[in-house]
Amino acid sequence: MTVARQIDIGSECKRCKVLIAEDEAIVALDLQMMIEDLGAHVLGPCATTRAALMQIAQDLPDAAILDVMLADGEVYELADRLRDAGVALVFHSGHADPAELLARYPKASVCPKPTYPSEIEAKLEGVLHAHSQPRVQAGLSG
Known about the structure:
Elements: E1 17-21, H1 25-37, E2 41-46, H2 49-58, E3 63-66, E4 69-70, E5 73-74, H3 76-84, E6 88-93, H4 98-104, E7 109-112, H5 117-141
Parallel strand pairs: 1-2, 1-3, 3-6, 6-7
Antiparallel strand pairs: 4-5
């Protein structure tokens, strides 16, 4: 028997862990406060891909908000690992082509910088909901 996670999109963020990978301190702090206000637990913020990789080795998040260009380079190694682990991804970047990101990460969402906090919240809830759907469907059929 498969156990499925129940989905309530309005409170999905309240039960999740969100990794923040952002090297701009003020932006990282804003994201952290926004995510905590949603009731989620923040992992990070991590200013480098290396720090984020070490973080996910200890505690895998349910979702991640990723800047494409971090202090030590591009975030793609981290994003690939998170995607492969089934983590919901939101890219929050001013340095990336949304079409290219979505071609590589079709289940992800993209918020170009700058953006309103409400848009990031909506995209985060959307990707969390989308990532949970296969598990719910599998649970109903199993």
